[in-house]
Structures are given as C-alpha cells and as structure tokens.
Amino acid sequence: MMATQLFINGQFTDPQQGKTLDVIDPATEQVFDQLAAATAEDVELAVNAARASFDSGVWQNQTAEQRGKVLRKVSELINERLDEIAALEVKDNGKPFPEAQWDVEDAAFCFTYYAELAEQMAASPDELIDVGDDRFSSKVVKDPVGVVGAIVPWNFPLLMAVWKVAPALAAGCSIVLKPSELCSLSCVELAKIIKEAGVPDGVFNLITGLGTEAGAPIAEHPLVDKLAFTGSVPTGSRIMAAAAKDIRTVSLELGGKSPFIIFDDCDIEKAVEWIMFGIFWNQGQVCSATSRVLVHEEIFESLMVRLCIEAEKITTGPGMEEGVLLGPLVSAGQYNKVLGFIADARAAGIEPVFGGERPAGLDTGYYLQPTIYADVPTDATIWKEEVFGPVVCVNKFASEEEAIALANDSEFGLGGAVMSDDLQRCDRVAKALKAGIIWVNCSQPTFAQAPWGGYKKSGIGRELGRWGIENYFETKQITAFNKDERWGWYIK
Ligand code: NAD
Known about the structure:
Helix content is 41%, strand content 20%. The radius of gyration is 24 Å and the shape is globular. The chain folds into two domains: 6-254 and 458-478, Aldehyde Dehydrogenase, Chain A, domain 1; 259-440, Aldehyde Dehydrogenase, Chain A, domain 2, CATH 3.40.309.10. With 492 residues, the chain is an alpha/beta fold. The strands form six sheets. The protein has a six-stranded mixed β-sheet with strand order 9-8-7-10-11-20, sandwiched between helices. A six-stranded parallel β-sheet has the order 14-15-13-12-17-18, with helices on both faces. Helix 2 (64-80) runs antiparallel to helix 5 (157-171). It starts with 5 loop residues before the first strand and ends in an 11-residue tail after the last strand. The structure holds nicotinamide-adenine-dinucleotide. Nicotinamide-adenine-dinucleotide binds next to helix 7 and helix 8. Nicotinamide-adenine-dinucleotide binds at residues 151-155, 160, 178-181, 211-212, 215-216, 219, 230-232, 235, 238, 253-256, 287, 386, 388, 414, 454, 459.
C-alpha cells in the first residue's frame, strides 16, 4: 500500500523519517491507506518554503484579480471532482455521502467567495481617517499577515481546512496546513488541486501527521506569523500558549455545548426535526451541535414521545449506503470517548430514554444509536461537557428567564438556537444568549458570508465572511504630514 505524501514547496514528498500512520475506515474498522506522518524536520522545510514564498512576493504581490483567477480555478477543480472527493471523505470520516457532498460543495464555494471578496476589498478606495488635524492625512491599508500555520480537526476535514486556506490565500498569505491525523485524505487531494490550479510553489504546504509530532512544531515555529486553529479546548490552549511565547496572532475555533430553547407555541413536528438535525447531523460531531435542548414544560412530554419515535426511524449504517442518515463515529478513540460519557452517566444513575447502544445488526464499525437523555441534572457531566457524538440531553423549563439562564450557564458560547412562533421573543432570546452564532427556528445551517466563532471557551476571533479574511490581514495606518513647513519641535 503506497502511503500519501506531504506537499512542500510545490512538490509531493515523503516525510524525512519515513513514518506513516494507518488510515482506518470507521465503517469497517479496516486499514485502507497509509498516511505520511511528518515530524519537526518536515515542518522546518514547509515553514521555510512558506516563508521564502511569502518574502519573495510571488503571491502577495500579485493583484487580487490574479489571485482570484487561481482561486476560482481551485473551486472549479474541486467541483469537477466533487463526488470523488466526497466519497473519499466518507471512507475516511464515516459521514453519510450527501453530507460529504454538501461539505465539498461548500468548500468549492468558499474559494470563489473569498476570491470575490478580496477583489472587492482591493477595488475599494483606501479608507481615509479623519485625524482632526488638517496638517496630516491618514489612511488605512491592509497587508497580508505573512506565513499562516493552519491546524484543523477531523469532523469536516476538507471544509474546516478551506475556511482557513481560502481566505488566507485570497489575502496573499502563504500557508502550512495540518489536517487531523484521523482524516487527512481530502486535504491531500486539495494539495493536488492547488498545485494544478497554479498557486506558486511554497505558498501552500501540507503537513500530515500527529498533533504532537507535526502540529506542535508548526505552532511553536517562530517563522509562522499567525496560527489559525480549529479543534478542542485543551489543544487550543496549547496553541495559544505557543503563540504567546513569540507574540504571534492566533485565532481559535473550539468546542461547544450549544443550547436550543423550544417554546410551547411552536409546531412540535418542526421542533423535533430541527432538534434531530441539530445533534444527529454528522453523527453529532459538530462543534456547534445543539446538544442541550430546553423545552417548555407544557410541550415537554409530547415532544419527547415524538422525538424518540423519529430517532428510531433514523437509518444508521455505512455512509455510502442509500438512505443512511447516521454513519459511524470517526474512530475507535472517539467511539470509546462517547461510550465513556454514556457509562459515566449510567454510573451516576442517568439512563438514556432512547439509544445509548450499538445498533442491532451493525457489529463492526464505530456505530452508536441516536441517544437521548431527558431531565438530566444540570451539574451532570453529560449536560455540561462536549460529548461530540449523537447524544442529546433534553430538559424542561417554565419561563423565558429560566430558559435563558440555563442556556447561558455554560463555559462554552459557540452556538445557540431558539424556536417560537413569536418572533419578538425569538429576537429577545437571541440577544440574551451569550454565544457567537444564534439560529432562530432552525439549528445548524451556516453560510460562507456570515461570521462564525464563539464566546467564552469556544474561541477567539471569527471565521467566514469579511471577518474571516480579516484574520489574514495586518492593519496598517499610513499618516502623512502635508504642510510645507518645519515641524518646529527641535528646530525653530
Ligand atoms: P484536537 O484538538 O484533538 O485536534 C485538532 C487538530 O490539532 C488536529 O489536527 C490535531 O492533530 C492537532 N493537534 C493535537 N495536539 C496538538 C498539539 N499539541 N499541537 C499542535 N496541534 C495539535 O481536536 P479534534 O478532536 O480533531 O476535533 C474536535 C474538536 O474540534 C471539538 O472540540 C470540536 O468542538 C472542535 N471544533 C470546533 C469548530 C469550530 O468552528 N469552533 C469546528 C470543528 C471542530
């Protein structure tokens, strides 16, 4: 079995130490590929290549239109291979094929979106600043931040990478990307596409391998100007500490335990479907998953009955099978972690009202039934911590104030959702929730144009939209003294 390769300075290359990692299909638990496992020596080469390409100006000095043309080509090439890349994502990650197609389509769009945004920004006149002193004129310009170290997780392997790669390239930066060791194959394909599209050598580099061996050296490298990270809180904290050492900028997209408040005036059928989409989509391995549901006490019992009936109808199985809506979890490690949460809850006397077991007939693969808890103590681990699996806790509330207080009682603040026929109430609740992304009468859909990111331990900074590209710019003021006279401080 041929292993994948790293992509450094425009060349596909084997890791210096020749290390590889098994790539496992979570639906079969079988090894189907070998992943190149980089170490610090490879990171050194990749960062140096990125640095040299940035400093040479080969990419950053191109116009936004020139870069935009290349990025649109990347988008076109992704779209041409959409189903093939989506199928690879299914094999690597386990997610159902239609979800993978959606991810890949979004990834392609992201490149055209940022090509266009960068062109618009470049075309708009410099922002003039009124400094209140007519002897001076001042304007603001944007510079690409430099070499970006982008480290991403496995839950949306291609898309999470592209949320960083597309705006960083559009801004004129050079990049070293490290996807998760669990799911890197779609990023290997991205590297091929980026090469084919004509991104100059060294501007985009791909390092695959373990977090400690291939990720940490990127985070710690002094020639990396900016760290863009998506992943867990503990790793995010390490990344921030590494950035702090050399005062480098950092943006963090971390975990969540997002609440979904459902009032008694809403349609129970719609509520049930959005609850399910909010937690079972992508096997619940979604940072913004609405995993804490708060239902008004008037409709709690009837909603729970309908939720369990619908959860039972979800077809679980291999992601490529027609009609499957719940695939396996990504890995043995993640599967055991989620089972651990269920076992700990059980030890604390908390039993699911639905699920919690391996589905019948699926003896191989990291499969778990959709799992529903009701009336969970709010100090229970399963209520407070991110499970990152198809596991939802549903509690009841009596008043709007109580719902908001319960929703905000979390160390996370990534997402939140509210459902009610009363749109004024939705607006009130949306404003009161301490989170970066709020859904009204839905949960989860997101768009490349809108900002993405969290409050509290869910992160720092925003991706997507114009906020996403700002991550990859430095802001520079240019202030000029316009009077034909001496300054007169020292020399009169
Ligand atoms: P993780 O933190 O274990 O790993 C993320 C990435 O960091 C991987 O590429 C990993 O190899 C790398 N890494 C691990 N240790 C490292 C180290 N010491 N130095 C440098 N890099 C290191 O997270 P995960 O399990 O891959 O992903 C799941 C987490 O990601 C969840 O907490 C989820 O909520 C979060 N997430 C957040 C968002 C968001 O937008 N906020 C999106 C997706 C996932």
